[in-house]
Write a structure and sequence with these properties.
18% of the residues lie in helices and 37% in strands. It is an alpha+beta fold.
Length: 640
């Protein structure tokens, strides 16, 4: 049977692998003598998924506590959450899309209710809600308000244990415990009733032991203690033996029969098998979400089946009766993930990937497999096309394959430092973070997410935001997957003179192209609000002030007098006779101009016409004069 797990290989690895620990620490602040040394090494090991990691300075911060947003990210990664889903089988991809769709309204409501809600974790929270690891009651406690003050509470010990029991699939067993129950802790009375069965069951499974006979349920786990709990829960074979065996798997085949819209029989390489259809199953037929009633015999399907042999996701395609394919069908790709352990270029291009795969029967296959590349194989890194020589030992690999040939390969490192140039910036929208697009010297391009906790600096200036950076800045970014932890930008102020050749206006920026006196052609970026680009004309001779590749100031030059009929600056003062004093540039020490504003002057703001008495000091303005060297205003555009 061609099977594939739904959860990250990480989860399968940490459930079943027997770890071998190094005697050296992975982190500067965790020594071999630390009580959680082995557990921290285990949860941060890439072979186990590295779902708990340190900072860019290689510190784990073992004594720090976690708020619920931070904890949700860790639990989601351990439970199978993926940031990159485009190369997954459709049945798995549908679960990620469906989880966010199912809980989007709820999460939007939370974000609208609390200004300190962390929207960058919405996808992870939705995934945990969909998997039943979190409940809406849990999530409603991620932010609390006392009067007008909002806080993000730390995760308590009893809450962490409840999440963990659900993560390992033991919630039904915990719910079956009869109360009253044998009391394993001296402070049993302090355990909230809604968490009591979880804590009892976790104690029986060895997930938590307590200290001196106490649970301290309302206290908080440190990161070191949390790593220990994950290690106890996920590396302990005894838990697996008492849990429902197996993990979700992907099966591709043809529908043989649909039974009363509650069961489906599928014929695959392993024969014909019958599965029940879960009540909340995602069912897609020809790219449209449908119910089980739309399924028909003969449809080709890819299904995701959980350990209880329930279909939790199904993607089906209709077949046209009476037609046969004239060409060989496209190969059915199996999907897996692992860590690249070897790269060979000669005599042929091959890579070796270490994977850990689970079969429904409970067998674990921990192996290294060597793959060649199929013709037209697609290699990407961070969603951008890459070459074979871009593959590195230690890369996390998400790959689609047939037998021993790779057809798709998505490469990703968990933590690394990227050095390059800021090519573009996509502002935040619809609750999503800003995206910085960085290009390395070798030409590789990365799309990186700027989080609320991202540290921005430019030169020696710290505590900046994403929009303080400039396109063309030289960047040094410390990233985790596609998330930016810290970034430093180095800009360069310069200028350029030339003839305006082209104006390209996009949703985010405007790009202008000029031909300089030496014949070279250069392009620069104008962000919205800097100046009114509609006042520019092709053929103008421009003098441009630059910060990296972004325009900060612009003058239109006259060839003969080298004077500008255009002024970009702000109104410094308004005289009693109606004339205005305009400071060119952005500082009060800039060159000033005293200008007459006749009644015939066109004054606009946002497309609406205004009168001279609507002008105010400190307004940013773009002014066109009647002629080079003149002091009479022809038009004023008031800028944001």
């Amino acid at each position: 049977m061609a099977l594939r797990k739904f959860a990250l290989t990480v989860l399968i690895t940490i459930l079943f692998a027997t770890p071998v620990f190094a005697q050296t620490s992975n982190f500067r602040d965790v020594q071999p003598s630390h009580f959680a040394f082995e557990a921290i090494n285990w949860v941060s090991d890439p072979a186990n998924g590295a779902f708990m990691v340190g900072d860019a300075g290689n510190n784990f911060h073992p004594s720090r506590h976690l708020n619920k947003f931070e904890a949700a990210q860790i639990y989601a990664m351990a439970a199978g959450f993926r940031h990159v889903t485009h190369n997954l089988p459709e049945a798995e991809r549908a679960v990620f899309a469906r989880s966010l769709e199912t809980w989007r309204t709820f999460l939007d409501t939370m974000a609208n209710e609390y200004s300190s809600w962390n929207r960058t974790v919405d996808r992870e929270i939705a995934f945990l809600l969909y998997r039943g690891i979190l409940t809406t009651t849990d999530v409603q406690g991620f932010v609390v308000r006392n009067g007008t003050e909002e806080t993000r509470p730390l995760l308590t010990r009893q809450q962490a244990v409840a999440w963990m029991v659900r993560l390992v699939g033991q919630a039904p067993q915990a719910g079956a415990i009869s109360l009253p129950h044998h009391t394993p802790f001296r402070d049993d009375a302090q355990i909230a009733p809604i968490y009591r069965q979880y804590v009892y069951h976790a104690r029986e499974l060895g997930i938590v032991q307590g200290a001196g006979g106490y649970m301290n349920p309302t206290a908080h786990f440190t990161r070191a203690e949390m790593a220990t709990v994950f290690h106890n829960a996920l590396a302990n074979r005894a838990i697996v033996q008492t849990a429902t065996p197996g993990a979700p798997a992907t099966i591709s085949g043809t529908i043989a029969n649909v039974h009363q819209d509650s069961h489906v029989s599928i014929t695959s390489a392993a024969g014909t098998e019958t599965f029940s259809i879960a009540a909340n199953a995602v069912i897609m037929v020809d790219n449209t979400q449908r119910t089980a009633a739309a399924l028909q015999d003969g449809m080709t399907v890819t299904v995701l089946v959980n350990a209880s042999r329930q279909v939790i996701s199904l993607v089906a395609r209709s077949q046209v009766p009476g037609t046969a394919a004239s060409a060989a069908p496209a190969p059915i790709l199996h999907a897996d993930e692992g860590v690249i352990t070897a790269v060979t270029a000669e005599p042929s291009q091959t890579i070796t990937i270490r994977t850990q795969r689970l079969r429904i029967t409970g067998q674990i296959l921990d192996e290294e497999r060597t793959f060649s590349f199929a013709p037209n194989a697609v290699i990407t890194r961070g969603g951008t096309a890459a070459e074979f020589n871009n593959i590195k030992i230690g890369d996390i690999a998400f790959f689609g394959f047939t037998q021993t040939a790779i057809h798709t390969l998505e490469l990703m490192e968990r933590e690394r430092t990227l050095i390059g140039v800021l090519k573009d910036v996509r502002p935040p929208e619809s609750g999503n973070p800003a995206i910085l697009i960085l290009e390395e010297e070798e030409g590789r391009v990365y799309e990186l997410r700027a989080l609320p906790a991202t540290e921005f600096s430019r030169g020696s200036t710290t505590n900046l935001k994403w929009d303080d950076l400039r396109i063309g800045d030289a960047l040094t970014a410390e990233v985790e997957f596609d998330r930016i932890i810290k970034v430093n930008a180095v800009g360069q102020r310069s200028s350029a003179d030339g003839r305006l050749n082209e104006i390209r206006i996009t949703e985010r920026n405007t790009e202008i192209t000029i031909t300089q006196e030496n014949g070279s052609v250069s392009s620069f970026i104008i962000r919205p609000g800097v100046l009114d680009v509609y006042t520019l004309r092709i053929g103008m001779q421009l003098r441009i002030a630059l910060d990296s590749r972004e325009v900060t100031g612009l003058q239109a030059r006259n060839n003969e007098q080298d004077q500008s009929p255009v002024i970009l600056g702000f109104i410094q003062s308004i005289r009693t006779d109606g004339s205005i004093v305009v400071a060119e540039g952005t500082t009060v020490t800039a060159r000033t101009h005293t200008l007459t504003v006749p009644a015939s002057a066109l004054i606009t703001r946002g497309g609406a016409e205004l009168l001279p008495n609507n002008l105010r000091t400190n307004m940013n303005v773009y002014i066109v004069l009647t002629s080079p060297g003149a002091t009479t205003v022809q038009s004023i555009t008031i800028l944001p």
